Amino acid sequence: MAAQEELGINFDRSAPISLDAASSEFDRRNDRLSFTDLTIRQGAMGISADQAIATGLDFDDSVWMFTGNVVIQSANTRAWSDAAQVRFLNHRLQSARLTGQPAKFEQEREGQEQLTEGRARIMEYDLETNLIRMTDDAWVSDGANEVSGPRIAYDLTREFIIADGDEQGQVRMKIQPSADQDGS
Description:
This protein has one helix and twelve strands. By secondary structure, it is mainly beta. The protein has one domain (2-174): Sandwich (lipopolysaccharide transport protein A fold). Strands 1, 2, 3, 4, 5, 6, 7, 8, 9, 10, 11 and 12 form a twelve-stranded antiparallel beta sheet that branches. A hairpin with a 4-residue loop joins strand 2 (23-27) and strand 3 (32-42). The radius of gyration is 18 Å and the shape is elongated.
């Protein structure tokens, strides 16, 4: 848990949640809120999108649909997508299902210049476990080596990849030789 806190992944639930939008509408009969040009922030965590629709403004237990230029960002990780379904629970971002052509993420690694990057058409981002599950044309790279396949899970805390093949394809890896090898 301490490693996650150092990375800014887990954040203070008591930190205020700020919401800024260009416009908002509230449909009381259907308990539906809609926003344009929205940014939600709590500590180091933030979400922005062109549009959002929520089942309620209660961050204790609500589901939000974000569309258009969706960005989810923490201290060292950023994810982009065309759309995202996000669940807030106990006043904290719990999980996000990102979809896109493709949805993408990048992670800054401590002491490394290169980023870890990934993409897939569907990304399930569990912020409690700090795990991103990618399906449908999944790909992850640490800046030199690459893994691709139908399903890839990436643990942001441990920087650990789990890749699975299925009946439609196998896992493929591309490994670059170390720069210090002299070719012998």
